[in-house]
Amino acid sequence: MAMSPPMAFTGPHEKDQTRARETVGLLEQDKKNKIEVLEWPSQSPDLNPIEHLWGDLKRAVHRRCPRNLSDLEQFCKEEWANVATSRCATLIDSYSKRLSAGIKAKGAATKY
Questions:
Q1: Hey, which of 18, 24, 29, 71 would disulfide with 66, CB 3.0 to 4.6 Å?
Q2: Cα distance between residue 51 and residue 94, in whole Å
């Protein structure tokens, strides 16, 4: 089975970071290392697995009703530690479906 080259994503919100990367030649390194850089649609949180994890974390912490900043910090740490590796694996495994849906939606929101 042929392997695809590694990919990195950039989007409109990252243009300044991209310019900074260019000044230090990292994009040239990406080319040298055969890392394909793809444009990232501006309205695509559903494509980013970490956004799903942030939503999970937010709901878990909210259920615990933090009363102050200390509670909030502690609950966030505890709930983050409780994120199952299977949840991360599911998000990674479903990435190709989410990417296809994003392409079909031309960068607009999807059901994910």
A1: 71
A2: 14
**What digits encode the pLDDT tens for the residues 54-100?**
999 999 999 999 999 999 999 999 999 999 999 999 998 988 888 88
Residue 31: count of CB within 10 angstroms of its CB: 11
d(CA 8, CA 18): 11
The CA-based angle 94-98-104, given to 5 degrees, is 150
Instruction: Please say whether the beta carbons of 42 and 12 come within 8 A.
Output: yes
Q: Which strand (E) or helix (H) includes residue 105?
A: none
Tell me phi and psi for residue 88, to 5 degrees. -65, -45
Smallest CA-to-CA distance from 88 within 54, 60, 112 is with 54
For residue 43, give Cα distances in angstroms to 19, 32, 81, 88, 104: 21, 30, 29, 22, 14
Q: Which amino acid is at 51?
A: E
Residues in the chain: 112
